[in-house]
Amino acid sequence: MRYFLTLLILLLIAFAPSLAQSSEEVYIQIKGLVDSSQWDKAQTELDRVLSRNPNDATLQLYQNFVWIGKADLAYSNRKFLTAYGYYEKVFKAWPSHPGVRNRYLELRAKEDLKDLQEEPKTTAIVKEERGVKIPPQNPTGSGSSKAVFIFDPSLQETSARVKFEYDKLLKSIEEAKKNVVTKNNIQVTESFNPKFLWLGIAGLSILSLINTFLLIRK
């Protein structure tokens, strides 16, 4: 009997370094998975080793880190009910953690706690016809009105031509006003033709009309 006990003690002493090395390798592996945010793989490895050693403090710490990572991920994806479950587990084991405590209390205070679906992205419907672009309509029917600018090549060409004629008329009017001659120290002003004034007013009206069509407000 004494011989058997001695042999058992010698075997334990011989295998103790290898067992310690194996545990250290497990810690390093799980820590690497946690640091790289591979929560599912880390959880799988933790389930395997915790089933054999559920009271290991280091493994329990890594388990809390995995729960926090999964909770934060679920919270960012609007899965509030799932996130609450993970935060609750961590809060029971680590109630002094400030971030977990605040998030846990926030979710617990919500009356209708559930996992929300991701909001569908509105596809912009753009109609292109002769340079005309129409933005997507507001589905709720609310919101501030937006100005829609229509860019039509033909209208741009017309506007440029009218502007050119208008500038030409203004130049003629200015030259007519300055066409003053001085003779024998007497200032003589040539007669001014009123038709230039009316042409200028007509050109200005046409330009204003074109600009009105170019700018359409909803």
Automatic annotation (TrEMBL):
Residues in the signal sequence = 1-20
InterPro entries of this UniProt entry?
Answer: TPR-like_helical_dom_sf
The reply on keyword Membrane is yes
Assigned keywords, A-Z: Membrane, Signal, Transmembrane, Transmembrane helix
TM region positions = 196-216
Q: Which domain of life is it from?
A: Bacteria
What protein name does the entry list? Answer: Tetratricopeptide repeat protein
**Record lineage:** Bacteria, Pseudomonadati, Spirochaetota, Spirochaetia, Leptospirales
